[in-house]
């Protein structure tokens, strides 16, 4: 179109024929007006072509300027994306190479006093490599291992790559750029977690395997020293049974009694002497817990412990001491945050943290002290150790010998 207008503009302009005035003009003004109109009409096409060409020229310049601006924006956006990708990769590489002991310590793990390559927390028993295997890790309870800090955090926290990178960057990432990236990745990870939780269906407990119950029962009574009356009663209620892998299944319930998850404890010993332990897939620790004793709303005293076996052990110890109206709940680890199901507890109830007698237990208990919890340590490592020692006659002393723990008030018995 522009070419057409330029071509038209370049065409010769027709000559304007102006009449010669007659010798005698009766009305010179009228004659001049007529000649001027004739000239205007003759020149009008040329003027129109010139105006149209100028408009086309202006439009072309505007289009070219717009194209240059768009190109510049696209180039800047591409450069920004490449820079962000390079920064994210650099940060990921940096996080992946973090020393695993430092990451495990930040995750709340406790280093084995006898073997510095082994770390323990909640339902994890993780070994880290050294020498040619430095950077590698292996979880003995899950029979799973990989390499690098990002995969380690993903395994422990059950999050994806972005969530792991966000957690690591928030703790180890240098500078504002890392903090900005961490915040962005964390927000993205939180959205993914919320979506996953919204899509998650009701928890489905492991299928009972009655043929395995005799073996599991023997393990709990003979090797764990749990009282047969407690074991059998929990089995009758459906809160304790065996699954197809010969694990002991301890059902977790919310304050209304609905099943929200299950703790699993293996009865088969591995080559390294450990046994499997963990939560059944789909369990929701925030919604409920395995509990022994009276209902939360009726409890005068609450004890939080690290496992279902510890819960039964402490319940036996407290009942033998004459205590009543108490409830022992397993946090399935050393949780240091109040969980929603605890809101069912009476405000007047006394609260104790009975986590293991180690630094991880002490750290979590210290955090819960602000919520009104008192520290109660087992005499040995955990409450099941205390119960086993007591049943063998080798555990002298009371479970409240620790100067930080005082005897709970006496209350009527639930049994």
TrEMBL record:
Residues 406-415 have a biased composition (Basic and acidic residues). Coiled coil: none annotated. Residues 59-72 have a biased composition (Low complexity). It holds the Pfam family Toprim_2. It comes from the Bacteria. Residues 219-285 form the DUF3991 domain. Residues 59-79, 381-415 are annotated as: Disordered. This is Uncharacterized protein DUF3991. The lineage of its organism: Bacteria, Pseudomonadati, Pseudomonadota, Alphaproteobacteria, Rhodobacterales.
